[in-house]
């Protein structure tokens, strides 16, 4: 897994959200949370596993919505941040955080209603094995996002410290088939790169987002989108 040691550093964990989801990055945070809430609804009493939960952005949100949720991550530092967030939101007794390896999930088959992962597959060195494990422990739904090969991200991907694994639609469809999953829905978004939004103040980011959304609604929008959200069902 790319960046495994980097994500386990205490300084990286403590600064993770402030660096990525402040200023114009708040817009990204809102959109990703909207994607998760929409895909997983109805959420109350749903048994959910989040892979690579990091600082608990989604885990805590879903606990607040009434999910029975477990967040798993390999980074103890990230999980410490997640537990602090859960306590601050008053949901620390409504969820569970575990340190573990996504390649060897410590759960029996068909244990969860939904298994999902955000900001994970761009770092995966063996995506087929990770997706197969997610499908194994889910009895219904698997949800995840990818960064896309034919997008603005491909222009600057080589400049990123760890790079990203970029996917095209055919590769994702092969991965789904290999894991015994059936695609239910795919949403494509962010023609403009994430990195641009993070450099902008909130009000300026909103202007760019309106342009981005308009471009996304054109025939060129889906092929050029930098992010895709994949909602699949166990066959």
TrEMBL record:
Coiled coil: none annotated. It holds the Pfam family Methyltransf_25. Residues 48-140 form the Methyltransferase domain. SUPFAM superfamilies: S-adenosyl-L-methionine-dependent methyltransferases (SSF53335). GO terms for biological process: methylation. It comes from the Archaea. Keywords: Methyltransferase, Transferase. One of its GO terms (molecular function) is methyltransferase activity. PANTHER family: METHYLTRANSFERASE, RHODANESE DOMAIN-CONTAINING PROTEIN. This is Methyltransferase domain-containing protein.
């Amino acid at each position: 897994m790319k960046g495994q040691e980097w994500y386990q550093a205490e300084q990286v964990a403590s600064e993770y959200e402030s660096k990525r989801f402040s200023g114009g990055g708040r817009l990204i945070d809102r959109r990703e949370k909207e994607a998760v809430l929409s895909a997983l609804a109805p959420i109350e009493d749903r048994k959910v596993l989040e892979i690579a939960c990091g600082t608990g952005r989604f885990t805590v949100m879903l606990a607040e919505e009434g999910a029975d949720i477990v967040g798993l991550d390999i980074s103890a530092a990230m999980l410490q941040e997640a537990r602090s967030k859960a306590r601050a939101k008053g949901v620390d007794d409504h969820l569970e955080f575990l340190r573990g390896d996504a390649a060897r999930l410590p759960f029996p088959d068909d244990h969860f209603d939904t298994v999902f992962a955000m900001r994970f597959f761009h770092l995966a060195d063996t995506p087929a094995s990770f997706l197969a494990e997610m499908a194994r422990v889910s009895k219904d739904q698997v949800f995840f996002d990818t960064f896309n090969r034919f997008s603005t991200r491909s222009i600057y991907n080589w400049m990123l410290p760890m790079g990203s694994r970029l996917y095209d639609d055919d590769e994702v469809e092969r991965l789904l088939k290999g894991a015994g999953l059936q695609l239910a829905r795919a949403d494509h978004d962010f023609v403009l790169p994430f990195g641009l939004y993070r450099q902008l103040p909130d009000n300026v980011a909103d202007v760019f987002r309106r342009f981005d959304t308009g471009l996304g609604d054109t025939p060129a929008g889906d092929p050029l989108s930098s992010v895709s959200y994949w909602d699949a069902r166990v066959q």
